[in-house]
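Go through this one:
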Amino acid sequence: MIRVVLPTNLLKLAGLGGEVLLDVKGVISQRSVLDTLEFHYPVLRGLIRDHGTEQRRPFIPFFACGRDLSHESPDAPLCDDVATGVEPFLVIGAISGG
């Protein structure tokens, strides 16, 4: 099972109370994790990635295994610790302001 941590606003929107557990088939990549997440929680479609292009929304970075994955290929395999559920895949809601 893949562990996904979402920002509080997305958890509330999807009616979730905490970390999301997903059974992802095939290669564990950003794309496969997000495809599975959006399949099970369609209300999240278009919020993390653009609905048409599937590109990451600006100011929503992805982290795993101590690394910022935001600018890596969405099809690159994620680290083994994410693939085995040891560490979560983090979707971070950016905070901005002045």
Observations:
- The radius of gyration is 13 Å.
- The chain has three helices and five strands.
